[in-house]
Design brief:
The protein has about 160 residues and is an alpha/beta fold. Helices cover about 40% and strands about 20% of the residues. α1 runs parallel beside α4. It is globular and about 45 Å long. Keywords: Membrane, Transmembrane, Transmembrane helix.
């Protein structure tokens, strides 16, 4: 076990929970720790690039994709979402308080060398293709995560 290694499972696509995951991840990386973020199930929506489209999807995969938020700008809040008004209010308050927005947090995480891994099994189940993810994301299964987690001093589930 290494005290300077951290892993975070990002299961949720709620904007507030995803922000917490990136705040912790970038904070740990800024302190010199090695960080791996493993995105699974709903958390995969964080990694979907709104500008990219995947080809070769079945009808059900396309329908599933339409029902899920695509990219960080579309993420709901876990509480007080109010049909999308809550996230807009949250973003307004973040800008007013000079808090970094999620796209900037993701870019910063990549610059700090944080490894972002998309769960291959969840991608298959949810019909998400590699070519619709943001650049720099690795694909891996549970063995990838468990290998990283077994070496880490801190493992979080968000």
């Amino acid at each position: 076990m290494r005290e300077d290694k951290k892993t975070i499972i990002v299961f949720s696509n709620d904007m507030d929970k995803v922000m917490a995951a990136f705040v912790i991840a970038t904070g740990a990386a800024a302190m010199g720790d090695e960080v791996t973020m493993f995105f699974t199930f709903w958390g995969l929506n964080v990694l979907r690039d709104a500008k990219k489209k995947a080809s070769g999807k079945s009808f059900l995969e396309r329908m599933f994709g339409v029902m899920m938020p695509k990219g960080v700008e579309k993420l709901p809040l876990s509480k007080m979402n109010f049909l999308g008004i809550g996230p807009r209010l949250m973003k307004y308050m973040m800008r007013k308080k000079n808090v970094m927005m999620l796209p900037e947090m993701i870019k910063q995480a990549q610059e700090l060398g944080i490894k972002m891994v998309a769960c291959s099994m969840s991608m298959d189940v949810m019909g998400i293709k590699k070519d619709e993810l943001i650049d720099g994301v690795e694909i891996g299964g549970v063995a990838t995560y468990l290998g990283e987690a077994s070496e880490a001093g801190v493992n979080l589930f968000i």
